[in-house]
Amino acid sequence: MSELTGKTALITGSTSGIGRATARSLAARGASVVVTGRNAARGAEVVARIEADGGTARFIAADLTDQEDVARLAREAGDVDILVNNAAGASFGLSADITTEQYDAMLDGNVRAVYALTAALAPRMAERGSGSVINVSSGAAVMGDVYNAVYAATKGAVNALTRSWAAEYGPSGVRVNSVAPGPVYTSAPVEYLDLYIPLIPLRRVARPQDVSEVIAFLAGPGGSYVNGAVIPVDGGLTAVEPPKSPAAAA
Ligand SMILES: NC(=O)c1ccc[n+]([C@@H]2O[C@H](COP(=O)([O-])OP(=O)(O)OC[C@H]3O[C@@H](n4cnc5c(N)ncnc54)[C@H](OP(=O)(O)O)[C@@H]3O)[C@@H](O)[C@H]2O)c1
């Protein structure tokens, strides 16, 4: 028996990056994993990898900007004990240049889908008396920057939802938390991510596993008294002042 044996985990955006690493981390701890995303070929690869490692997984295709798809995903996933709201989209640009379509896609995928999936699945966890919802936020929620006003706003919303849901579902034994990564080697260009290295006290960009291990901790018995937390997983980036000189950043 592993610590998540008998649990079902739904991880959105698990066809790549942090979500894929999380699916593998939770499956390795014994959870039966529901992999989801739009790309069925990558979804099948993740399922095959988990099964090759001795785990259990299945794939459900869904576009989280589509309300019908989100509702169908919640139905087809069935009873879920661990919900990881990880998927997000990002269009970066000056605020005057962001189109209505880009704005809607970020709000719909990053906030409305998180809200709808949680509203569909958390009450069923509450009826069973236990469960864990983990939202993947971002350091962008607490650090202003040009080019990412809308994306940052969606992550601020995720943090606010996390705290509200901790109050709403906590009394029924359902814990709700967020992890807030800094830069992680996933789909963004390495050259862009590496610009952060001098600003990160640990002087390295995260690997997806650095984040998935924290999510797995929150999902498991070790996180049993953590509720309503937004946990930075950013090597200290949002905790400290940036270095005052190039020498200090070395
Ligand atoms: N990487 C970073 O530096 C970083 C930093 C801070 C926070 N984060 C957060 O971490 C989370 C994961 O990011 P990542 O970098 O691992 O992402 P990623 O590698 O780019 O993967 C994004 C995942 O989300 C899915 N996805 C995107 N839009 C979707 C949609 N409309 N419907 C369904 N699935 C969708 C993609 O699946 P399909 O392509 O199959 O649809 C994919 O599995 C996000 O919430 C992101 O905001 C990342």
TrEMBL record:
It comes from Streptomyces rubiginosohelvolus. It is an enzyme of class 1 (oxidoreductase). CDD domains: SDR_c. Keywords: Oxidoreductase. Coiled coil: none annotated. Belongs to the short-chain dehydrogenases/reductases (SDR) family. Its EC number is 1.1.1.-. This is SDR family NAD(P)-dependent oxidoreductase. SMART domains: PKS_KR.
